[in-house]
Design a protein that fits this description.
This protein is α+β, with helices and mostly antiparallel strands. It has 7 helices and 19 strands. Helix 4 runs parallel beside helix 6 (177-191) and helix 6 (177-191) packs across helix 7 (202-212).
């Protein structure tokens, strides 16, 4: 909905059943086809991808109304692997379904938050191993082209609104595998105690957000040293190299809540410096809620991961004072803030 689209999900069991697919598709204008088989025997990979493509093509034809197909293809389709052959043949099959209504989006290596280690992305494996204090076992240095999963999603969504048959290949970040590992090692070394690494450049920021997703929730909260003398106390909430961003302080009355929203790219840090509060977070598309009780007498960092909706609630008898820092200045026209309740009910206005 945040992109002006109503999304109709298709369950896994429907991907091989043209009749069930046709019932789902009867009221839609476009289908974004990302489903596929990436692991298994040679025949399972080829047959699974082609079966899903055939079922989708048959379902679209049965609907008997113009539906656009946006296909998430892969650069592997140019190679000789079984997976590449399956993606290539599936694209050829879908291309003739509805003339003038097919987008073939050829994606490079994808990475992003919450990727599965030891599966499709070496970036997820590297993040998982570095976070656990291990050096990845397989570091075959070569140049690769990387694209963040959210950029891929935006491209696929944009193709929903296009016309004609199209072949699209996005620009990607050329980087060596060894350079990715060095960046992740740098992040770990700097961020271990809450200090922020150099995040200059879009790719660095995306890679750091990806790495942070492998640290949450077990690394938080991070205790901050509290210095005191006869004058009072001092707590350093943010230590950063070249980062700018925006800092602000808010107060929250007893029982009141702030938040119930989610960020797709924004880095946000919470530090309660006075009073007692609960910070609750839920990863999108799951029911798991993580809760932290924080106290201004023992200041600590909670860095909010992207793709986790979150809120802060005053659970004490006195006012809560919270220090916030974000890595970008707030802009009304592109706030990257989407209402989304952590638990049941409506998000507050």
């Amino acid at each position: 909905m945040s992109r002006g689209l109503d999304c109709v999900p298709i369950r896994r069991e429907a991907t091989s059943d043209p009749d069930r697919l046709a019932r789902v598709l009867r009221d839609v204008d476009a289908v974004v086809h990302c489903a596929g088989v990436t692991r298994g025997t040679d025949s399972a990979v080829i047959d699974g991808n082609l079966a899903a493509a055939r079922a989708l093509a048959a379902a679209v034809r049965r609907v008997e109304r113009p539906i656009r197909i946006v296909y998430a293809n892969s650069t592997h389709a140019r190679g000789d692997s079984d997976y590449g052959a399956a993606k290539r043949k599936a694209a050829e099959l879908l291309a003739g379904t509805v003339p003038g209504r097919f987008s073939d989006v050829v994606l490079p290596n994808l990475f992003g938050e919450h990727g599965r280690p030891y599966h499709n992305s070496f970036v997820a494996t590297f993040c998982h191993d570095v976070a656990a204090g291990r050096r990845p076992a397989d570091v075959r240095d070569r140049e690769v082209r990387l694209l963040h999963a959210q950029d891929a999603a935006q491209l696929l969504i944009a193709e929903v609104h296009t016309a004609g048959d199209r072949a699209v290949e996005p620009e990607a970040e050329p980087v060596r595998v060894g350079a990715v590992l060095r960046l992740l090692t740098e992040f770990e070394s700097t961020y271990r105690d809450g200090q922020l690494p150099d995040l200059a450049g879009r790719f660095r920021g995306q890679l750091f957000r990806t790495y942070r997703s492998h640290l949450f929730p077990q690394r938080f909260p991070v205790a901050l040293p509290r210095r005191a003398d006869a004058r009072g106390t001092l707590v350093e909430c943010v230590r950063a190299g070249t980062n700018g961003g925006q800092a602000f302080i808010s107060t929250t009355r007893p029982g009141a809540t702030r938040g119930d929203h989610v960020h797709l790219r924004k880095f946000e840090r919470f530090v309660v410096v006075d009073g007692r509060a609960e910070i609750a977070l839920r990863r999108l598309f799951t029911d798991r809620v993580v809760r932290y009780r924080v106290d201004g007498d023992r200041p600590s960092i909670v860095d909010i991961p992207t793709l986790w909706t979150h809120r802060l609630t005053n659970v004490g008898a006195d006012r809560v004072t919270t220090f916030f820092w974000t890595d970008e200045v707030y802009r009304v026209e592109d706030a990257d803030t989407f209402p989304c309740p952590v638990t049941g009910g409506q998000a507050p206005a």
